[in-house]
Each structure stands twice: as C-alpha cells, then as structure tokens.
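Throughout our pipeline, every protein is held as a single compact record rather than as scattered files. The remainder of this section carries one protein's record, kept here as part of the documentation.

===
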Amino acid sequence: MMQSWAMRLIAANCVVFVLTMIQPSISTPLAFSPFLILERPWTLITYMFVHDGTFHLLFNMLGLYFFGPRLEEEMGGRDFLLLYFLSGIAGGLLSFLTPQVWIIGASGAVYGIFFGYAHFWPRERILIWGIIPVEARYLVVIMTALSLFGGFTGGSNIAHFAHLGGFLGGYLYLRFRDMSVRNRMRKIEMPAISAGRSDIERWKAIDKSTLHEVNRVELERILAKLDREGLEKLTPQEHLFLERFSRR
C-alpha cells in the first residue's frame, strides 16, 4: 500500500526537527513573522515544519497521525494536502492579530485537519486524555472557545490565533470543496446510462485491503446493492465512490 501524504508530512516534520536540533540557527529563517511577510513570504509555508521542543512536535504529529490518514482516504491526497497547507497558511495570516510574535509549528495545519475530521465524522467520539469521550463536533467548539480565550487574554507562548486560523482555513476550504462536489454531482449522468460490464468488473476488483474500515464497509454496501437491485438503482454519489476508488 502506497504511503499516505499524512505519513510523509509527519516524516518531513521530524526531519526538520532533527536538523534544527543539530543546527538551531536555521530555525529563524524558517519561522514566520507577520512584520516580515513581504521580505520572507516563504515562511508562511516553512513555519509549519519548525517546532519548539519535543513535546511541541509530538503533540502536533500525534494529531496528524490519528486524524490524517482516515481523512486523506476520504478526501483524496490532493484535497488533503490543500486542506493541510491552506489551514496552515490561514493560521499564519490570522496571526497578524498579534504581529509582534514569531510563529512556528504545524498546529494551524493540524487544527484544519481535525476540523476536516469533525466535518466528515461529527459524532465520532474522541477520548480526551484517553478517558473522556467527546464528540468531534463539540470538541471543535471547545477548542475554538479555548483559543479565543487564550488569544485575547494572552499570557502564554501558544499561538492561539494560528489555531483559530487553522479552523477558519479548514472551514473555508471545505465549504468551497463541498460546493464544487455538489456542482460536479449535478453534471453526472446516472450510472445506468454510462456504465457497462467492464465498469462493474473494475469496481468489484477494488482491493479492499487497501481501504480504511469505513470505506471498506461502504464499498461492500454499494456492491451488495449493485448485485441485489441492479446498476440503475445506484445513485450518482455511489457511482462516484466506486469510480474514485477503482481508479486509484
């Protein structure tokens, strides 16, 4: 199975962390300062890969590890990367509310990934500290409230506005993506008109072992419906699902 972009991002963050530990002077050219954006525009990207200590790196990478792969499988690699980087960029831009600070870390991008996770699975229960179950949609609300409070009260070295920017960037990108998907769906012909025997054989040949459990269950449901009710009963959404995974 091909390695996911989520795991590649984790590896890239770890590599940069090791390099900055060996040579701390390279951290400053990669960090983002709102005051210097015109002089150093690349730092809107590079700041996401710099972390201030092992715990800072570990917290962000655990979030990317737990929520990233499933979300990437649902969205596809291209959309996942766009969500990640646009959320991180939005986190940097919202940091203009505190222009005197330097921003580092993948938190904004990871917050965008978590927002995406809550978007697709709002009722999924997340265990806080491994013991307290909270639905993903409510956790977004709690995290937003904490970031707002921390951002306007100050008193810590946490980039609260970058976190809020991550949520905002994730929300805006997913709204745009949902609108684009709905527009495409309106143009899709019914599967009974466009699909044939070779398409059915291709759909049934999808390797289930490469799929996340959620997508594997959905694939089995659609294929069972296809056998039971026939091609003409598939919805455009189900047809798109089969096409996406059969052409990966």
In short: Residues 191-246 form one domain. The radius of gyration is 21 Å. Residues 189-193 have pLDDT under 50 and may be disordered. Residues 160-187 form the longest helix (28 residues).
